[in-house]
Structure formats: structure tokens, C-alpha cells
Amino acid sequence: MSALVRVENLKKYFPIRKGLLRREVGSVHAVDGVSFEIKKGETLGLVGESGCGKSTTGRTFLRVYEPTDGKMMYDGVDLASLNAVEMRKMRRKLQMIFQDPYASLNPRMKVLDIVGESLIVHKLATGKEVQARVEELLTLVGLNPAFANRYPHEFSGGQRQRIGIARALSLQPEFIICDEPISALDVSVQAQVINLLEDLQEEFGLTYLFIAHDLSMVRHISDRVAVMYLGGIVELADKDDLYEEPLHPYSQALLSAVPIPDPVAEEGRRRVLLKGDVPSPINPPSGCRFHTRCPIAETICVEKRPEQREVKANHFVSCHLVDAEEVVA
Fold first, then answer.
1. CA distances, 177 to each of 7, 25, 45, 69, 284 (Å)
2. With the C-alpha atoms ordered 70, 176, 75, 170, is the resulting torsion angle positive or negative?
3. Beta strands in 22-153 (DSSP E)
4. Are 279 and 285 in contact (CB under 8 A)?
5. CATH annotation of 3-93+173-328
């Protein structure tokens, strides 16, 4: 099956300006050479520490931020090449569920207007049709359709996120970027939202890019997982391969911090503790971005940035020191 989404060497740098004339004196390398594919109906999980560029990757793909370089292909169309009018039409197929359900809903608008706005903008419904469609969408996400005339402050966090999901579904998209959709919710509500996303994916054949911190939740919902560090993807593999046998030193450290609900296994497990702090994206390290914290770094890691290699079937790693022959053996 060919990929619905294909990102090649995507870069997004934010300029740093100083002085009275606002001259550019540097840039923040938020996304620095990211590549991945997502097949139709698949969920790709994107994980990593705060500030590594996960959300920026998603927003750049939707052209909320304009890319600095690279290709962003959707169903064979390069999104970076589209003008404003063409991109607006394309956004009917591409939607986003935002992280903070408190900040992403306009407090001055009723739910009817929040969910129905895109229907009016894209001229898909008018008058009473908007009301009927909004009530249908609210029912779809598990809310009472009578809530259409209420304001966001009248809802709990989980209910607000369901409104955000209804808004994302209003244009009947094919691809949805879920930008940490459960991180601001209570633990008891997180599972409900995840189950809702899975049910909607099965019903409508949706494709997801699921951005999150919670590694156990990512394993539950994703088909494949990409691990991101300081603007780049260091490992990409099927979820079971990645969680059971991570190959990149950073992935090993990240997964060693995930609690195991088995006291015996937890006690016998080896924790990987990283030295130092994450370097600044304003002045990232030379070579491999991880070499300043890597326990096995060598000279080549300082001098040359590793390419993303397929070290075994569908398992990609950006590391000079992972040997494909040793992995296969």
C-alpha cells in the first residue's frame, strides 16, 4: 500500500531577531531533517521529550507554520507548493485535535458556532443544515446534542476535548494530527478519549499522527512509533519491535523510564540514566545530535550526522554504531 502521508527531510527554523532593525542573528532549529511515511488507515505515534519538535512537525505539515525546507506530500500532492486558496481546499482533508481543550475553544462562542464554523467557511451547510450537522457530530462523539447552545466554560475537560474532536470531524477529513490530545486530561478521562479516537478511526477509515508524551498510551493506539530527539527522528519501527527491542541509545533510555506493573520485573530491570541536559536547538551539537549525552558515543558521532538506515525489516535507526548484521544475527 502506498503512503498517504510522506515527509522528506522536513526543516523548520524560527528566526531570532535583535536590535532596533530586528536583524536576524540566529535561528531555532525546531525541526531539523525529519522523514517518515504514514499509510492510509494507520496510526503513527510520535514521542520524545518536551521541546524536541513534535508539535512543530505536525503544525508545519498543516502549514500553520511555513516550512523552511523539505517535502510534505499528501496523497501525491506537495503541500509546500500550494498557494493559500489551494491549501484552504486541502484542509478539508487535513485536521488537527489540539492539546489544550481549555485554550483551543473560543470562550465567547457557543458550541454550535465552534463546530459549525468550518461548515460555513467551506460552504458545506447553511442555516438549519448547520444545526442538524452539529447535533449529529455531538452525538457521534458521545455528547448530548442539546449541548450545542452552551458555552465552553460549562463543560469539563473531557467534554471540551470531545467538542474539539467534533470540530475536527466536521469536514469529514481523511488525516488527523492528534497533538497530545490527552495530556491535559485526568487519567480517568484519557482512556475514554483514546477509545473514542479508535472507534472513529475504525468507522471512518481515518489516518492519525498521534503526538504524545505517554509512552504506554502511544503503544496502545499506534501501529508504528517514531522517537524524536532535538528536531530529528532517531528511531522508527513497528510498536512491538520498538518497545521490546529498542536499538537507539536514546530510545533505550526513554523506554527504561516507563513503569512496569510487575514488581519483580521492575526490580530486575536496568535503568538507563542519561548525563547532562538536552542541548539548545539554537546551537545544536555537531554530528549526531545525541552524542553529548550518549553513553556509547565515538569520534564519528561528533563529526558526522547519521542517516536514517533500515537496520532490519521496517526498523529504521539514525545511529552510526547500530550494526545491521549484529541486529539480524
1. 14, 32, 10, 20, 27
2. negative
3. 23-39, 43-47, 69-74, 77-78, 94-97
4. yes
5. 3.40.50.300
* pLDDT tens string 302-315: 999 999 999 999 99
Q: What single letter denotes the amino acid at residue 111?
A: V
Q: How far apart are CA 178 and CA 206, in angstroms?
A: 12
Work out whether strand 175-179 and strand 207-211 pair parallel, antiparallel, or are unpaired. parallel
Question: What whole-number distance in Å separates Cα of residue 169 and Cα of residue 141?
Answer: 10
Residue by residue, DSSP assigns 247-287 as -SHHHHHHHHTS--S-HHHHHHPPP-PPPS-PPPTTSPPSS
Cα separation, 9 vs 147, in Å, equals 44
pLDDT band at 264 (very low <50, low <70, confident <90, very high): low
For residues 319 and 234, give the distance between their C-alpha atoms in angstroms, rounded to a whole number.
7
Counting Cβ atoms within 10 Å, is residue 289 exposed (0-12), middle (13-18) or buried (19+)? buried
Integer angstrom CA distances of residue 178 from 59, 129, 183: 11, 28, 11
CA-to-CA distance for 44 and 39, rounded, in angstroms?
9
Residues 6+ apart with CB under 8 A from 220: 194
Strands 43-47 and 224-229, sheet pairing: parallel
Q: What is the pTM of this model?
A: 0.91
Domain boundaries of the chain, sorted by first residue = 3-93+173-328, 104-170
Q: How far is CA 75 from CA 3, 7, 174, 319, in A?
A: 7, 11, 10, 30
Helix orientation angle between 128-140 and 157-169, rounded to the nearest 10 degrees: 120
pLDDT of residue 266 exceeding 80: no
The grid cell for 284 is 545544536
Q: How far apart are the first and last CA of the chain?
A: 29
* 287's grid cell: 554530528
What stretches of the chain show up as alpha helix (H) in DSSP?
Answer: 54-61, 84-90, 111-121, 128-140, 157-169, 187-204, 215-221, 239-244, 249-256, 263-268, 299-303, 324-328
